[in-house]
Write a structure and sequence with these properties.
The chain is mainly alpha-helical. It is 69% helix and 0% strand. It folds into 2 domains: 56 residues, Homeodomain-like (Arc Repressor Mutant, subunit A, Orthogonal Bundle); 135 residues, Tetracycline Repressor, domain 2 (Orthogonal Bundle). The chain contains 9 helices and no strands. The mean pLDDT is 87.
Amino acid sequence: MSEKEVRIPKQQRSIEKKNQIKTAAIALISEKGYHKTSSNEIARKAGVSIGTFYSYYADKTALYEDLVMDLYDDVLNQIPEMDLTKVTNPVDLVRNYIRIVMAGHAYMPAFQKEVTCLSQQYDHFHELEEKSRSHATEKIFRLMMENRELLRITDFEIAGLLIQNALEAVIHQVQFYPNDYDKEKVIDELTDMLCRYVFKPEYLPPS
């Protein structure tokens, strides 16, 4: 089916059907993995015909891309805009930011773990995730640009790359796999590490 034939839901009933398909897909992919989940299974679990499935999505990959975009939007919407110039202790804001990102990864963890695994194994899925992930990168970059007088870093693009990947690597380990880590201690250490990397010493509280 061509992209021109894919339906964009406008009426409430159509929106609900599309959401049913998304909900079914998340449940199945979280349980079985992307490659072991078929479009027919998704349609059956959603309570719609396979024809209805293909009226909303050209294929399973198009549905997956929509789900990943929704996932990043849901998590990013929890992260407020921050103006570091209006606070006396930027460390607290960094800690709160990390705590929000940590909590965001507790949202649909099985599905997020599958997204991460696919992205690491296949270039195509990595490209799909990067489209959505770029919004998070842009948010970090914008935050740094707006508060650059407080920062010791000079290459904001590289800094954004390092910050995002450092956060994700640690948080994925803590949230996606069984472990005995004290999450508050992890947050404290991540906060200390990032603050020492990002801020000029005069803007940090005494040790």
